[in-house]
Amino acid sequence: MAEQDFIYRISTDQEWQEFQKKGSSFGGELDKSTGCFHLSKLEQVQMTLQNFFLNAKEDLYLLQIDPNKVYL
């Protein structure tokens, strides 16, 4: 699978810990407030970091996701 076939998720430490504990996550505050789970193409990650995580006070994780393994 080529890199462009993946989608990416910037996760906070809190969200990542929830995912590891429960095996799933409903996202962070932005996701919950908009009702959308926000994902990015690789070329969008830097812009997303600058627009939404510039002053993040906790560790961030970049998750690489195979869209063929996402269940809705």
Structural notes for this entry:
With 72 residues, the protein is an alpha+beta fold. It has one domain (3-69): ADP-ribosylation fold, CATH 3.20.170. The protein is built from three helices and two strands; from the N terminus they run E-H-H-H-E. It has helices at residues 13-22, 29-34, 45-52; strands spanning 7-12, 60-65. A two-stranded antiparallel ribbon has the order 1-2. The chain is globular. The two termini are 21 Å apart.
Question: Topology, please?
Answer:
Blueprint: E1 7-12, H1 13-22, H2 29-34, H3 45-52, E2 60-65
Antiparallel strand pairs: 1-2
| Tally of domains | 1
Q: In terms of structural class, how would the helical and strand content be classed?
A: alpha+beta
What sort of overall outline do the alpha carbons produce when their principal axes are compared?
globular
What low-confidence regions span 5 or more consecutive residues with pLDDT below 50? none
Whole-Å distance between the termini? 21 Å
Total count of strands? 2
The CATH superfamily bears the name Protein of unknown function DUF952
Binned, the helix content reads 25-40%
Specify Rg, calculated over alpha carbons. 12 Å
Average residue-wise pLDDT: 87
Tally of individual helices? 3
Q: Determine and state the CATH class.
A: Alpha Beta
